[in-house]
UniProtKB/TrEMBL annotation:
Domain of life: Bacteria
Any matching Pfam family: FMN_red
Cited InterPro entries: Flavoprotein-like_sf, FMN_Rdtase-like_dom, ISF_SsuE-like
GO molecular function annotation: oxidoreductase activity
Name under which the protein is recorded: Multimeric flavodoxin WrbA
Organism: Ruminobacter amylophilus
UniProt domain NADPH-dependent FMN reductase-like: residue ranges: 4-135
Keywords: Flavoprotein, FMN
């Protein structure tokens, strides 16, 4: 069988624009015979990083919450999709907290393929700041490969992406994992 594709959805809205684009991506990946899983951060209990630095020597976080389970899934994946709505020209707080909590294991994520999927009310140009922040995370991972970035600008209200070419673009991106 194909690759293991794990999508992390940080939108607090069920069936929102980001979620719909991710689902199109995953459908493409499934149609290409890859195994997929989608995790909603809104359903997870994830505390903020405490900055205690214990993980720098132990490679384990002292906080016991859903990140333990999520880390196992990330380490098992070949492809990681990070998706976020764009709020005030940056990623959602849920995504930022998730990324911060990956400090203990980012060296173990080496060699993974990454895709970024975003949606925003503003145009694609304003999404660039968010993409740069996501790239900053992968810059810390040895041999991380950003395979695709999907800019979903001009989609503010829930369902704005319905019937738009962006869903086909997401599908094709997933089909080409």
């Amino acid at each position: 069988m194909g690759k293991k594709v794990l999508a992390i959805v940080s939108s607090p809205r069920k069936n929102g624009n980001t979620d719909m684009m991710v689902e199109s991506f995953l459908k493409g990946a499934r149609d290409a015979m890859h195994r997929t899983e989608k995790i909603y951060l809104r359903d997870c209990k994830i505390e903020f990083c405490r900055g205690c630095e214990v993980c720098s020597s132990t490679h384990h976080c002292v906080i016991k919450d859903d990140m333990e389970r999520l880390v196992d899934k990330l380490l098992d994946a070949d492809v990681i999709v990070l998706s976020t709505p764009v709020y005030f020209y940056s990623m959602s707080g849920q995504m930022k907290t998730f990324i911060d909590r990956l400090m203990p294991v980012y060296p173990e994520l080496r060699g993974r393929e990454f895709y970024f999927i975003t949606a925003a009310a503003d145009n694609d140009t304003m999404i660039e700041r968010t993409m740069q922040a996501l790239e900053g995370f992968t810059d810390c991972i040895e041999n991380a490969e950003i395979r695709g970035k999907l800019y979903g600008g001009g989609n503010w209200r829930k369902g704005d992406v319905e019937g738009k070419e962006i869903l086909n673009t997401a599908y094709m991106m997933g089909a080409n994992v």
